Amino acid sequence: MPGATLFETVRTRVSAADEADGDALSALFERCEDFFQLVYGQPPGPAEVQSFFVALPDGKTYDDKFAAAIFDTDGRVIGALDAIRDYIEPGRWALGLMLLDPEHRGAGFGREVYEGFERWAAGLGARLIRLLVQVQNTGAHAFWTRMGFEQVDTVHQRTGILDSECAVMARRVPEAS
Fold this sequence. Notes:
- There is one protein chain.
- The protein is α+β, with helices and mostly antiparallel strands.
- It has a single domain, classed as Aminopeptidase.
- The chain is 29% helix and 35% strand.
- The protein has helices spanning 22-31, 33-40, 46-54, 109-123, 138-146; strands spanning 5-8, 12-16, 65-72, 77-84, 92-100, 128-134, 150-159, 162-172.
- It has an 8-stranded mixed sheet with strand order 1-2-3-4-5-6-8-7, sandwiched between helices.
- Strand 4 and strand 5 form a beta hairpin.
- The N and C termini lie far apart (31 Å).
- 30% of the residues are buried.
């Protein structure tokens, strides 16, 4: 049973996730093994779902964290989204993860979910969205560039067993209407 709905799009409902969604998220992560191999250098393990719920940057609380499941119109989990509100400064949000089931990639779901997320976040005060993309994740880099994100910095990050160069990308959020 999904938690409170955060926002909806034409083909999805994005709802707060909790431990009751753990099995569905674990199955999603397994279906997205390609992403985990690319970014973490290994398949997803049981700790990935737990980390999705509990990982926080220094100085933030769970009141600032949005861990969400993305449901299709049939109520199946087809994706996951993780964001941190006001990270580093008010109005600047970090999008930690936006993951879609391979069956739903390349069909406009990513654009639809991101645009819904951005409108929702704008209503909560977001003025800038930032994210990291590992250099080896060329598909994600191309997607975020098409979404209007620009690279503003480069950092190194260890994820799983990989040390990766990452593009720090950002996009200004239009004012909420």
